[in-house]
Amino acid sequence: MKRYILLLPPGGAPEGCFEAAAGLAKADGAELKAIYVVDSIWSRYSAADWLSTGPSRSDFDRYMQDTLRREGEGLIDGFSRAAAEAGLSVTAEISEGDPAEALIKAARSWHADAVVVPSGQKKLKAVLEKTGLVVHSV
Q1: pLDDT digits over 117-130, tens only?
Q2: Are the CB atoms for 133 and 113 separated by under 8 Å?
Q3: In angstroms, how far is the first alpha carbon of the chain from the final one?
Q4: Which residues sit opposite 34 in a β-bridge?
C-alpha cells in the first residue's frame, strides 16, 4: 500500500487542499498522514532582540509555540473531518523544528511514497525534491 504524507502549513491550507489530498490518496489506495510543524524560527527571532529581558523572550517564544500548536490542532481536526467524509482514516502529528527538516524526517521514518504540499510552497517543494522525495502539489 502506498503512503502519502501531507504538510499542513501555518495559516491554513488553501481552499480545497484537504479534499485534493484525500482524493489523491483515495484514488491511489494510499494511506494518508498529515503533519503540522511548529516552526522553531520564533525562538531565533526573540533571541536576537537585545532589548528584551531573558524572561520576556522566553515568554514570547512560549506564546508563539502554544499559538502555533493550537493552530496545528485545529488544522489536523479539519483535515481529519475532510478525510473521514472521503471515507479515509488518517493519522496526524504535530512536530517542532525546521519545517523542511521535520517533513523530510517524518516522510522517511514513515516510509512515505510521496509528500503532498499545498500550492504556493515552491521553496519547500524544491528542497524536498532535492532529497529525492516525490512531491505532489495540491
Answers
A1: 877 767 776 766 76
A2: no
A3: 21
A4: 6, 92
**Residues 39 and 99 sit within 8 Å (Cβ to Cβ):** yes
Task: Give me Rg for the CA atoms of the chain.
Answer: 16
Each residue of 26-37: pLDDT tens digit? 888 889 999 999
Ordered strands of the 90-97 beta sheet = 90-97, 31-39, 3-8, 114-117, 135-137
pLDDT at 11 (0 to 100): 80
- Here the cell at position 96 is 517542532
Domains of the chain, first to last: 3-137 (3.40.50.620)
Looking at residue 28, its amino acid is D
Residues 6+ apart with CB under 8 A from 52: 46, 60
State the residue for C-alpha cell 516552526.
39
pLDDT in tens, 85-123: 878 878 999 999 888 889 889 999 999 998 888 777 677
- The model carries a pTM of 0.80
Give the separation between CA 13 and CA 80, rounded to whole angstroms: 13
